[in-house]
Amino acid sequence: MKMVQKTTAFERVNHFVLLVSFFVLTFTGFGFMYSALNWMNTAFGGNAWASVFHKWFGVAFAISAAISIASYIGEALSFDDDDKKWLSVLGGYFDKSLEVPPSGKMNMGQKLFFLIIVVGCGGLISLTGFMLWLGSSMAFAHLFHSLTFFLMVVALPLHIYLATAANPGTFRIMTRGDVPLSFAKKKYGKWVKEEGLD
Amino acid sequence: MANMEKLSGVDITRKRIGLLVTPELCMGCRGCQVACKEWNKLPADRTSNSGTYENPPDLNANTWNKIKFIEPKEKKGQEWLFISQRCMHCGDPGCLRICPVPGAIGKTRDGAVVYNKAKCIGCKLCSVGCPFDIPRFDKNTKISKCHLCFDRTPAGLAPLCAKTCPTGAISYGDRDALIAKAKGMGYKSVYGENSLSGLGVLYAFKEAPEYYGFKGSPGLPGGVSFWRNFLKPLTAIGVGASVAGAFVHYLSIGPDEVTDEGGDA
C-alpha cells in the first residue's frame, strides 16, 4: 500500500507536548475548580505541587501552542468555495448521503477547530494564565481563564473522537505521520493534487 | 458542614457571633489596632506622615483591622468620621467560594471566616472573590486577614478589638442580639443584616453607607457570581454532553470508514 507523509516528526512531537500539557492542566484545573474533584490533585503531590505543575505545564502548553499557531495559521486562514460547501454539509458528519467537497491539507472543520480552540482559546487561556500567575487584572483573568477552559474542555472529547473512532486511520497522522494514498485522496484530495503525491 | 439541625435537633449553624461597629461611638484611639497586633503577634508597620491621623494607610498582612478616618465637608463645616474596618465575615464568603483549595479558607460554625496558611497555595484568588477588598498577603503570598479571633471566641473570650474598645464602638456577641441592640439604639437599618447571607461584622450607620465609604448593597463580584452559578455547572454538564454526543454519533451515524480503494466503506 502506497503511503504519503502528512506530518513531520517535529509536528508530531509538538502535538504530544500539547496533549500531555493539556491533560496535566485539565486534571489540575478540575482539581482546583471543583472541590469534589480535588482528589485529582493528590496524584500530583497535593494542592501546592498541583499548583506548581499547573504553572509550569502552562508554560509548556503556551510554547507548544505558539509553535502550532505559527505552523498552521497560514493554512487555516486560506478559505475557498469548497470550504464554504464543506461547512454547509457539515463535512457529511450528520448525513452520509451528502457529497463532501474535496479539502486541502486541512478541512474546514479542522480550520475552525484550530482557529477557535487553538488560536483563540489557547492564546487567551495562556495569556490569562500568566496574568493570574503574576497577579495582574485577576478578576478579568479568572473569568476569561474559566470561559476559555469551558470551550476547550467541551471541544476536547469531540477532537479526540473525530481524530480516532469517527475517522479510522486518522490517529496515525499524529503517531507515525503517514497515511495510505487512498485515504489521503479521499480526505485531502486537493492537497494530494497540489503536492503531486498521486 | 452537615446539617447540624438534623443531627442534633438544634440549628447551631445559625448561632452566629459577630461584631457591631457604631462609628458614632468611636473616638479614633486605635486601641483596637494595637490590641489586634498584640494578640496575633503582628509586627508594627513603619509608615510616614501623609498629613492624616489615619495610620497605617491601609490594611496589610500585619494589620488586620484599622480605623479609617474620613473628613467629609458639610454645609455647617467639617465632620470627622472614624470607621473600624476588617474582614466582614460574610455568611456567603466570596473568598471561600473562589478558593481552589478545600480547607485553605473555611467558616467556623459560629460564622468566622478563617484560613489555614499550611494549605493556602498563595494564588490570591480570594482577593478576586472578596466584595470588600480585604485579603492581604504575607511575604509567602499567603492570605492574611482578621479571623474574628477564632482562637478566643470558642473559649468565650471576646475578640481583642472588641475587648479593648473603651467606648463600645466595637461590641461583640451573638449576631442576632447585636442587630437587636443596634435597633434598640435607634438605628433603623443595620448594615450587613441581610447582604451576602448576612455579614458577621455589622455597622450601625446613621447616614447612607456610601457616606462612610461603603458599598450601598454589597454582593459577590459579578464575574465571580457568574462563574460560580453558571460557568462551573455548565462546564461539568458540557464535558458530559460532549462525551455523550460523541458516543451517540458513533452508535447512530457511525464512523467515516475509508476502503483501500479510497471509497466509502
Q: Looking at the chains present, what oligomeric state does this protein adopt? A: heterodimer
**In the CATH hierarchy, what is the superfamily of chain A?**
Transmembrane di-heme cytochromes, Chain C
* Helical residues, percent of chain B: 25-40%
Strand order of the largest sheet of chain A: 1-2
Task: Report the order of strands and helices of chain A.
Answer: EHHHHHHEHH
Strand coverage percent of chain B: 5-15%
Distinct helical segment count of chain B: 7
Distance between the termini of chain A: 13 Å
From the N-terminal CA to the C-terminal CA of chain B, the straight-line distance is 58 Å
Biggest beta-sheet profile of chain A: 2 strands, antiparallel
Q: Catalogue the unreliable spans of chain A.
A: none
| Uncertain residue segments of chain B | none
- Global geometry of chain B: elongated
Arithmetic mean of pLDDT of chain B: 93
CATH class of the largest domain in chain B: Alpha Beta
Describe the structure.
Chain A has 8 helices and 2 strands, in the order βααααααβαα. A two-stranded antiparallel sheet of chain A has the order 1-2. Chain A has 198 residues and is mostly helical. Chain A has a single domain, classed as Fumarate Reductase Cytochrome B subunit. Helix content of chain B is 27%, strand content 14%. The A-B interface holds A 1, 32-35, 38, 47-48, 51, 92-96, 132, 135, 138-140, 142-143, 146-147, 149-150, 153-158, 160-161, 165-169, 180-183, 185-187 and B 98, 100-102, 104, 119, 121, 123-125, 127-128, 221, 223-224, 226-227, 231-232, 234-236, 238-239, 241-243, 245-246, 249-250, 253-264.
